Each structure stands twice: as structure tokens, then as C-alpha cells.
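Exercise 7. Given the components listed, write out the predicted structure of the assembled complex. Treat all entries as one system.
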Amino acid sequence: MGGAGGSIVRRVATLGVNIDHVATVRQARYREMQGHPNAEPDPVEAALAAVRGGALGITAHLREDRRHIQDRDIFELKERVGVKLNLEMGISEDIVGVALRVRPEDVCLVPENRQEVTTEGGLDVAGQLEALKRVVAVLRGAGARVSLFVDPDGGQLEAAAETGAEFVELHTGAYANAFAEARAVELKKLMGGAECALALGLRVNAGHGLNYKNTQAVLALPGLEELNIGHSIVSRAVAVGMEQAVREMCAILARG
Ligand code: PXP
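Answer.
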């Protein structure tokens, strides 16, 4: 972007920290003892530490099977963590109902498959266009900024623009899991996806599988506004604490 006097103004992508993995550890021990006084670790405490480390957003995925984040986590995150909440969710009636009560600042719609370890692919937007249009309208009506988690695919991006969503979150998983030449190919797809999204009037976020080694290259995506990163930050936090783990990732984003 050209600034006054020919200087270049570079926008730094912001970091949203996904804290699902903290809840995964808690549920591994306390799934059958919801609300037990010993239940730990607390995703809300983790989110507060992430904010102290520089996170400008907290992301949490309320899955239909409630395997990690619970409804009360979402309400507490909204109430106690002073940065924007990005609620990741599928489009079932139950979950949309929770979203309407929580009123998160951001919602990211994702596909959900009960057997998957984590979100596997982007949304098939084109294949469920009418359902997505309805949910996007309801959520936007409640004041949320809505993004759709999509692969960098022209057809899906065009469909995303038709839903009325303001953002897409480009799925970086294929890039993150590829190495050498294959990774360069995936990065090129992400670049093309970001350009296509911008041309369609969509705003661009990205995430999935990003870590301390592969994030820097993604910062070159045109128009990139926010990265959502979870697993790698929570893993690093085991060694250095959440605040420091987030500070280190923020430093990567700031270097661009
Ligand atoms: N963005 C979306 C839409 C996701 O589903 C996830 C995983 O929950 C992430 C970002 C974060 O991925 P990771 O935990 O691999 O950093």
C-alpha cells in the first residue's frame, strides 16, 4: 500500500489464538465430571494469558459433540476475555442457537465431521449455498462478522461471496502438511485464493496447521488480516508458558 510521500505502509496480520487444545487436555481427564472443582487446565485462563502475550483475538470451536470446548467456556470467554471472540462452528440449529445467545464478535463457519481429529477440509460452500446464506444472514443480523473456512478454490470462493459473508478464512492445512516443492505449490494456491477472494470483495483470514516455522511465508498473502493458530502455540506453551508462546508468534507476525 502506498503511503504519503511514497512511503510503504505495511499492515501486520493479527493473531487469533485457538484455545480448543487446552480444553482437550481438560476433557481427557474430566469429561465425565463436568464442572468438577479440580477440572484443569482452564481455557479461559489460557485465553487471558494469550491476551497478555499479544493475541488480539481468541478462537474457540464449539463442536456438536462438545469434545473439547463446552458451552460454558464460550460464555465465559465472551464475558471475561477482553478481546474479540471468534466462535468456530458448524451450522446445526443447536450451535447457531448458542451463537445467538453468546453474540461473539466473529463467527467462522466450518465443516464438521464427527470422526475427524481436527477440521479436515474447507466448507463445501457451493454444495450448501442456500443453507449457508440463511445462517450467514441470521448471524450477521445478530451483529457478528462472519467468515467461511474454505480451501483456496475459485468455485468455493465465488460461492462464499454469494452467501453474504464478509470474510473467508483460507485453509492453510494442505500448505502446512506439504514440504519442499509441494509446499511451494500449495503456497501459490493460497496466494491465488487470496487474490481471488479480494477480487470478489471478500476479506481474507487464514489458518490451520501453522507453526513457528511455516507461518512467515503465509504472511505474504495479499490482504491477509488475521491468522488463527492453535495447536503449535499450545504445544509451545507447555515448554515456555502461554504468554511467552504467544509473544514469540506475535514477533513472527510483526517481522512479516
Ligand atoms: N482455523 C480453523 C477454521 C480451524 O478449524 C482450526 C483448528 O481448530 C484452526 C484455525 C487452528 O488450527 P491449528 O490448531 O492447526 O493451528
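Discussion: The pocket of pyridoxine-5'-phosphate is lined by residues 18, 20, 61, 88, 108, 110, 118-119, 149, 169, 207-210, 228-232 (CB under 6 Å). Residues 1-6 have pLDDT under 50 and may be disordered.
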